Amino acid sequence: MLSAIQNYRQATPDLATSGQPREDQLAAIAAAGYDLVINLALHDDPRYSLTDEPTSVRSLGMDYIHIPVAFAAPAADDLVLFLAAMAEARGRRVWVHCAANMRVTAFLGLYWRLCEQWPEDRAFALMHEVWKPNATWTAFIESRLASATASSPTCAAGGT
Questions:
Q1: Cβ–Cβ under 8 Å, residues 69 and 99
Q2: CA 152 to chain centre
Q3: Is pLDDT larger for residue 100 or for residue 49?
Q4: Under a CB-based contact definition with an 8 Å cutoff, are residues 69 and 98 in contact?
Q5: What is the pLDDT confidence band of residue 153, given thresholds at 50, 70 and 90?
Q6: How far apart are CA 108 and CA 113, in angstroms?
Q7: CA separation for the pair 127, 117 (Å, rounded)
Q8: Which residue stretches of the chain are H helix?
Q9: Percent of the chain with pLDDT strictly greater than 90
Q10: Considering only CA atoms, which of 160, 9, 117, 134 is closest in space to residue 71?
Q11: pLDDT tens digit sequence for 71-90
């Protein structure tokens, strides 16, 4: 069932990513032992969101974090919130999704590069499996990488 979720990727043993899961797929995520869902998509487009995802996720016994990232305008503050959420999620089974797994794979690439100090090619390998970032996302990624070399990123608990 998990493999049927749009752009599903098992990133690490305790971290999976995807596009927007359906209600029945959220139940499969819970049944697979995930206990936290992080959603980077917006809640305002019924084509790419559920009616009440926070309630659905919590009713299945999982925690829910929503960091709405505008696809056309990703912001540095969104990334800071994501890095903090990932730091707080250490030791948990985490499912991160957005509408199509594009925002997620870009943010995870930045997380792995900035907080885990993975080499850039390894950090962004998952993203390159899913998509080739457009000019907006390429500029965003480059700016976050450049600013991190000038000052330390917000990686609340350091690397794993």
A1: no
A2: 21
A3: 100
A4: yes
A5: low
A6: 8
A7: 16
A8: 23-31, 53-59, 76-88, 102-114, 120-123, 125-130, 135-150
A9: 84
A10: 134
A11: 999 999 999 999 999 999 99
